[in-house]
Design a protein that fits this description.
- The complex is a heterodimer of chains A (about 475) and B (about 325).
- Chain A contains 13 helices and 25 strands.
- Chain A has about 475 residues and is an alpha+beta fold.
- Chain B is mainly α.
- The mean pLDDT of chain B is about 90.
- Chain B has 16 helices and no strands.
- Chain B folds into two domains: about 1-155, no CATH class; about 155-320, no CATH class.
- Classes of the chains: A alpha+beta (about 475), B mainly alpha (about 325).
């Protein structure tokens, strides 16, 4: 591929970027066999600690189980302080605007009236929840935990620029890997943390608990906060259990909850106990069988009624999906201008929308150069990376797009930045992204950095763990 | 605490304890089978094992009528279709632990997880077939470790008490079954009459029972005399200072139950207390006079009922 590349560590084969100098010098001094044994040690520890995820429908060769490790790479992704500060500012701005947008959608719909977002984009969106119309939520916050995916790509001058790829406002996951990766790095290479000023991230569970308590209903001074999980066979179960443990709160399943007299209770060994805040890791569809999917056993019957009365807080709120849809994404810069009167700090990736006749024409004519995505796809499924696809794959996708144009969007294929990574043949550049976790309660805050995911296959741009992606520790260097 | 969490903790410890007791019984049987004795005697031992766990029909279905040591070991160790095999118990213990890993200390969770990971490796490597005793020893030590880690790291809150309750309820059950089957093997019901079988057989039979509950040295220390069935029964039923006896197990069940009592549990606590008192004030000659089998059958029923009541009061409450 002749597209320009941007490597986070190496400005050129002979030149290391300033913020990586210290680390690169250290790395060059490490004997190969030491690094190899550290890699084995890391894998052994991850297994013992049980930091695994379940792959749907998968079985090991011996049929013994479906728990897999997410590969962990030893070389950290390093972000200099000044880059992080502007990214942080951009994230606060973006998430603030998105929360304002969701509140607007479920109340006065000013942005539609002003003609900035077409009404059908919202009302025909499967993630729009009419049940939420006119419902007031504490501090008008809907997305309490936002996992914003950011990538870096070179501009025409070869300078790396950050772009937001998607805003995950429903139940973003991965934060446990951010924390465990750091723990692992400190365990394997304690000396690195003496010689580099790496901003700490371990206080994330504290910030999360503070955020959750901040949105408790006014009915109690000492709120009972719980994490709601679909159960131990969910792919992110480790994270649910981890966060509940770190915050010192109960990890509940739907069967543990019930509604009585317009309050939510959990079944305890000392009788029913009222629940005030639910950090749910269950999708809207499964939350309440009496309102959403009637066959769901993962939620709690009557929960939405209690929620609408303001007697329980649900985080993230019901109906946030209307704002993180790929077809709403192109309007986020407008939201920032409309609600905050500011210029967006973080870039959006230019996006062509299938619903627009002009855009569609361009999409169909240039599929081999574009990334085409299903509007409702997630997890790296339902997308076509034009330059990496065969003619036949492109034709199949073209038919799908033509059959349902508004179900698709397309973006130019960004040449995601790379970071040196351990692979079979040694160290080689692999594409990465970044997911910072933005918390919105009384204020918007986050820990420095986020989760760096890396596509381990040569040339692959898909970083999702379900598609063979790995993770790296993410360092924000303090000045 | 959450009822479901308590339930998982209760069963995590029960399954761990069950795996340990199964390993103990299998080991003693295996060791005894190496002694010079008639094949019929060894056979009685292997049959007894299946009877203890009420698994004879399941075994026959899978392996036919013939009881061979190899098949019994295979069935009781690695067979995942057998709900009481060591593999099933350790897997169930780990699944219960995983369901509430957030409620466990990191050390306790890692211990349970590590046991399960190593079990997979050991069964795959055929280590167990090469040296069954070493494998049983390993199971016992993993259980010791898990219990020690729990006691050494857990906050002594409700979670801890439900965890302990599971351990001792299971132990009471397992020890009672062991006694019942082993005494049954020599007498259809034991009323305290001296055995008519030859003395040598007796010695190995009773000392095997004692060894399976780590009680051989304890017996010598307590009685300083030859091994007699009456005293074996007394030691394993009534001695509150013998850690695997029925009395010791019931004491722990009652102690832990009393701490977690709630609005529903008064009757459960009363029955547990009564069962404990019945042991506390019993005499072995009285028990034997009415028949050991009858006594143990009734005891097992009461322990089973206690488990059901604990479940209803705390672990799986209605509404």
């Amino acid at each position: 591929m002749s597209r320009p590349m941007f490597d986070e560590m190496n400005a050129s084969p002979s030149e290391v970027r300033a913020h990586y100098e210290n680390y690169a010098r250290w790395l060059a001094q490490q004997p190969e066999e030491v690094m190899a044994s550290r890699r084995e040690e890391a894998e052994m520890i991850f297994r013992r600690v049980g930091i695994t995820f379940a792959v749907y429908g998968a079985k090991d060769e011996d049929g013994s189980g479906t728990e897999r490790l997410i590969p962990f790479d030893l070389i950290p992704r390093i972000i200099p302080a000044h880059e992080w500060h502007s990214m942080e500012e951009g994230l606060v701005q973006r998430v603030t605007a998105l929360n304002r947008f969701i509140h607007d959608v479920y109340h006065d719909q000013e942005i539609i009236k002003a003609g900035h977002v077409p009404a059908e984009q919202i009302f025909q969106n499967a993630q729009f929840r009419p049940e939420m119309m006119g419902v007031d939520v504490p501090h008008n916050i809907y997305s309490h935990i936002s996992g914003v995916d950011i990538v870096r790509a070179p501009n025409a001058d070869g300078v790396g620029e950050y772009y937001v790829l998607e805003d995950n406002l429903r139940v973003p996951s991965g934060v446990s890997y951010m924390l465990e990766d750091r723990k692992m790095m400190m365990r394997l290479f304690p000396e690195l943390f003496g010689s580099n000023r790496v901003a700490p991230v371990a206080h994330y569970p504290d910030l999360l608990l503070e955020t959750l308590r901040a949105v408790s209903p006014a009915t109690t001074a000492e709120p009972t906060v719980v994490v709601l999980t679909p159960g131990m066979y969910n792919s992110a179960y480790f994270e649910h259990a981890f966060l509940a443990q770190q915050m010192g709160i109960e990890l509940v399943e739907g069967q543990d909850l019930f509604v009585k007299d317009n309050f939510v209770y959990m079944r305890t060994t000392r009788g029913p106990k009222r629940v005030d805040v639910i950090y749910r890791r269950v999708d809207d569809d499964f939350l309440d069988p009496s309102v959403f999917r009637p066959t769901s056993t993962l939620g709690c019957e009557g929960l939405l009624g209690v929620y609408r009365s303001g007697n329980v807080a649900i985080c993230n709120a019901v109906g946030t999906g209307v704002a993180d849809d790929k077809s709403i994404y192109p309007y986020v810069p407008k939201m920032i201008e409309f609600y905050l009167g500011q210029k967006p700090i973080l870039n959006n990736v230019p996006t062509f929308m299938g619903r627009d006749a002009e855009d569609l024409k361009y999409m169909l004519a240039n599929m081999k150069d574009l990334v085409v995505k299903e509007v409702h796809g997630a997890g790296g499924y339902g997308m076509l990376v034009g330059p990496a696809s065969t003619q036949a794959e492109i034709e199949d996708f073209r038919k799908a797009v033509q059959a349902n144009p508004s179900g698709y969007i397309a973006q130019p294929t960004l040449s995601l930045s790379t970071c040196p990574t351990y692979v079979q043949s040694g160290v080689a550049p692999r594409h990465i992204d970044l997911r910072p976790f933005v918390l919105s309660g009384k204020e918007v805050q986050m820990v420095p950095g986020g989760l760096t995911r890396v596509a381990l296959k040569d040339g692959s741009l898909v970083v999702n763990s379900s598609q063979g992606g790995g993770t790296k520790d993410t360092w924000v260097l303090e000045d | 605490m959450l009822s479901r969490t308590a339930d998982h903790l209760f069963w995590m410890s029960r399954y761990t304890e069950r795996a340990e007791n199964t390993a103990r019984m299998l080991d003693v049987n295996y060791q005894t089978s190496l002694l010079p004795q008639s094949a019929a005697v060894a056979q009685v031992g292997w049959e007894g094992l299946l009877v203890i766990s009420e698994l004879m029909p399941a075994y026959n279905k899978k392996y036919g009528q013939e009881i061979t040591p190899r098949n019994v070991l295979d069935f009781m160790v690695r067979d995942e279709s057998n709900p009481s095999s060591i593999a099933t118990c350790l897997k169930a213990a780990r699944e219960n632990a995983r369901a509430v890993r957030g409620a466990l200390t990191t050390e306790l969770w890692e211990t349970q997880n590590q046991t399960w990971l190593e079990l997979g490796r050991m069964l795959k490597s055929k280590n167990f077939e090469r040296d069954p005793s070493e494998f049983f020893e390993w199971v016992k030590f993993r259980s010791h470790l898990s219990r020690g880690v729990a006691i050494g790291t857990m906050l002594q809150d409700e979670a801890f008490h439900f965890y302990r309750m599971g351990t001792f309820l299971e132990r009471a059950d397992n020890t009672a079954r062991l006694l019942d089957v082993k005494f049954h093997a020599v007498h259809s019901d034991f009323f305290g009459n001296a055995s008519e079988l030859d003395q040598e057989y007796d010695f190995y039979h009773w000392s095997a029972i004692l060894r399976s509950v780590s009680g051989f040295e304890v017996y010598r220390k307590v009685y300083r005399d030859v091994i007699s069935p009456e005293r074996v029964a007394e030691l394993l039923i009534l001695r509150a200072d013998m850690p695997r006896s029925l009395a010791a197990s019931l004491n722990e069940v009652v102690n832990n139950l009393a701490v977690v009592s709630n609005d529903l549990s008064a009757e459960t606590l009363r029955r547990a207390g009564k069962l404990k008192a019945d042991l506390q004030y019993a005499r072995i000659d009285e028990i034997l006079a009415t028949g050991l089998h009858a006594f143990l059958t009734q005891f097992l029923d009461r322990v089973n009922e206690l488990g059901g009541r604990i479940s209803k009061d705390f672990l799986v409450p209605a509404g």
